[in-house]
Design goal:
single chain, alpha+beta, OB fold (Dihydrolipoamide Acetyltransferase, E2P), 30% helix, globular
């Protein structure tokens, strides 16, 4: 019985290590001091955890199609910001801005996007921060006289 408990604990520990290693920190992968913008056609959008994912086919200056992978916050953060599975649709043309990798690969962490109809979407954390700053700015305004 004792060896069964040890085996169970070891199995759970290994499972936790594998799950933890699948989730990475931002700074070692992405350059938070730079942004890049690409425009193309969405080929995949998955609103999942730990990070939502989108693929965008971008035609470079030489006419070659390069698939950019865009990583987002997780499903909970995005849905709390009003996102759904239908926020971005496959086949849609858009431009997306994000923090590139340190290695220069065709991968970025989402900051904002602009759809062909002009709709702009921000990372929910950025949108919340901007809303709070606007509220602070308005509170500092002198009250209007009656």
């Amino acid at each position: 019985m004792r060896s069964t408990t040890k085996a169970l604990v070891c199995g759970l520990w290994l499972l936790c290590v594998n799950v933890a290693s699948a989730h990475h920190a931002f700074a070692p992968v992405y350059d938070g001091g730079r942004t890049v913008t690409v425009a193309g056609i969405v080929t995949a959008f998955r609103l999942v955890n730990p990070h939502a994912q989108m693929s965008v086919d971008v035609t470079d200056d030489a006419g070659k199609v390069v698939t950019w992978n865009v990583e987002f916050d997780g499903r909970l953060n995005l849905t709390n910001g009003g996102w759904s599975d239908d926020t971005v649709t496959i086949g849609e043309r858009l431009s997306v801005t994000g923090n590139p990798t340190h290695t220069g690969s065709s991968r970025m962490f989402f900051v904002s996007l602009q759809k062909a109809d002009g709709t702009a979407l921000l990372r929910p954390a950025i949108a919340r921060f901007q809303a709070l700053e606007e509220q602070r700015r308005q509170r500092k305004q002198p009250a209007a006289s009656p």
